[in-house]
Design a protein that fits this description.
By secondary structure, the protein is α+β, with helices and mostly antiparallel strands. 33% of the residues lie in helices and 24% in strands. The chain has a single domain, classed as Chloramphenicol acetyltransferase-like domain (Chloramphenicol Acetyltransferase).
């Protein structure tokens, strides 16, 4: 129960806007849904020592940002949108990576601009800056535009897997579940591996299922070999 006279909570302007955009996306952007399980054992082992070495806090999400920044230029339709008439696909010359943040004013999607031109450390610093701005209601309009692919994660709540709704202007949204341990037989014994379900909802008007699957496979290959993401 809410402490209001009639248990009604008026929607804020940002909540009304987000609701309208999500409804528009669900109604007008038919999506194809894919999911793979990524082995992040090496990434998890590398993350903390690398943060100490580079002098900046690098999160698991930052590795995803870096992998997305590398993979999207290889699959340019992931940086595309339909023109206003809906008759042609326009491919952006820059990669914008959005990520969902639960901010005081609602769920917002700040955007890392020109992500393809930035290395892992630069992406980590910029994502941290945008996260702080979002949580303190200091995001500017320019911080909220230009996303091509969006990242959303619910693993911190124990969610194993889910599919999210992409903003109307984005070509796709990645959804990250929790990091969990799995036991695997290797022929000589058993190994414990750290894995994560990664979902992709892609705009079917822009990319077909095979194209989206190839992009997702490339993304996971980069994450499962994280050392290559540490190189400029």
């Amino acid at each position: 129960m809410y402490d209001t006279p009639d248990n009604r909570i008026p929607l804020t302007r940002i909540q009304r806007l987000i609701g309208r955009l999500m409804l528009e996306s669900k109604q007008q952007c038919p999506a194809c849904y894919l999911q793979v399980e990524a082995d992040l054992t090496e990434l998890t082992a590398l993350r903390k020592p690398l943060s100490k070495e580079r002098g900046v806090r690098i999160t698991t999400n930052d590795f995803f940002f870096c992998a997305m920044a590398r993979a999207i230029p290889e699959f340019p339709l992931m940086a595309a949108r339909l023109d206003d008439a809906g008759h042609a696909i326009e491919i952006s010359d820059q990669v914008g990576i959005g990520f969902a943040v639960a901010a005081p004013q609602g769920l917002v999607v700040p955007v890392i601009q020109d992500a393809a031109g930035k290395d892992l450390v630069q992406l980590a610093r910029e994502s941290e800056m945008l996260l702080k701005k979002a949580r303190s209601n200091r995001l500017l309009p320019d911080d909220l535009c230009g996303e091509n692919v969006v990242l959303s994660g619910l693993g911190m709540y124990g969610v194993r897997s889910f599919y999210a709704i992409a903003p109307p202007c984005a070509s796709a949204i990645l959804s990250l579940g929790n990091l969990h341990e799995m036991v695997h037989a290797d022929g000589e014994g058993f190994l414990v591996r750290k894995k994560m379900w990664v979902g992709l909802a892609a705009n079917r008007r822009l990319v077909h299922e095979v194209y989206a699957a190839r992009f997702l496979r490339r993304l996971v290959d980069l994450l499962e070999n994280p050392v290559q993401l540490t190189r400029s």
